[in-house]
Amino acid sequence: MSIIFLGAAKYRILNNKEKQYFHCIAFLFFIELLNLVLPYVFNLNDTSFLYPLYIAGEFFLVTALFIRKLELPKYLPGITALLATAFMVSKYVFDYPFNSDIVKVISNIAIICLSGFALLREIKEGSTQNRFLLVDACIFFYYSVSVFIFIIQHQIANLSENDYLIILSANNILSSILYCSFLYTFIKLKK
Fold first, then answer.
1. Least C-beta-crowded within 10 Å: which of 12, 54, 58, 122?
2. How far apart are CA 103 and CA 100, in angstroms?
3. Residue 134: what are its φ and ψ, rounded to 5°?
4. What are phi and psi of 45, to 5 degrees?
5. pLDDT for the residue 70
6. How many other C-beta atoms can be found within 10 angstroms of the C-beta atom of residue 139?
7. Mean pLDDT across the chain, nearest whole number?
8. What is the DSSP letter of 147?
9. Cα–Cα distance between 47 and 13 in angstroms, integer?
10. What's the pLDDT at 191?
């Protein structure tokens, strides 16, 4: 929650490309908040219906961020929006694919590629002007490990409870590192 307040306070000093970082973290916060609030407010014990929205929104926002950052053609965010919308329609209307984790892995791979290219370009150019370089590195790291976790999670039935908790803890630690990188970056931003 502190990331959202701090990001909102620093929003005016962000350039157009950097504002996308705040949009991403605000979306993730909103989805997490819904997952916490819906069971208590509306007595919904199953909030899995939010998962396709989470996947599609995350895919669109993060890929659009790196598309803009890499200065790729301006029509590409429209294509990612179309893909995200198509996934939500196929899932909510036709219940296809039956396993949304497949789409999650594919979207994470796209995010890994774009964030990796952005990091390589930053390293190649030796630019220190990127105030969100740490966040970019953490995004790359988080989504890279996340793909591995999603691939092995289908073998959870064969895992012991301790192994499952280790995998879940690793994902929580990685997401905490990602959130802390946002927090650190927002704290150190100056006009």
1. 12
2. 5
3. -60, -40
4. -85, -15
5. 93
6. 26
7. 88
8. H
9. 36
10. 62
Calpha distance 172→174 (Å, rounded): 5
10 Å Cβ neighbour count for 155?
11
d(C-alpha 67, C-alpha 82), whole Å: 15
Amino acid at 133: L
Cis peptide leading into residue 97 (ω within 30°): yes
Q: How far apart are CA 162 and CA 165, in angstroms?
A: 5
Torsion region of 181: left, alpha or beta (phi above 0 gives left; psi -120 to 50 gives alpha): alpha
171, two tokens: 């994902």
> 18-38: per-residue pLDDT in tens?
999 999 999 999 998 999 899
- Token pair 């919904």 in the structure block, residue: 44
142 confidence band (pLDDT: 50, 70, 90): very high
User: For 128-134, what is the mean pLDDT?
Assistant: 82
Nearest by Cα to 103 from 72, 59, 63, 152: 59
Whole-angstrom distance, CA of residue 3 vs CA of residue 186: 8
Tens of pLDDT, residue by residue over 146-163, are 888 877 776 666 777 787
The contacts of residue 134 (CB under 8 Å, 6+ apart) are 181, 184, 185
Spatial separation of the C-alpha atoms in residues 188 and 62, rounded to whole Å:
22
The CA R_g of the chain, rounded to the nearest whole Å, is 17
What is the average per-residue pLDDT within 42-61? Answer: 92
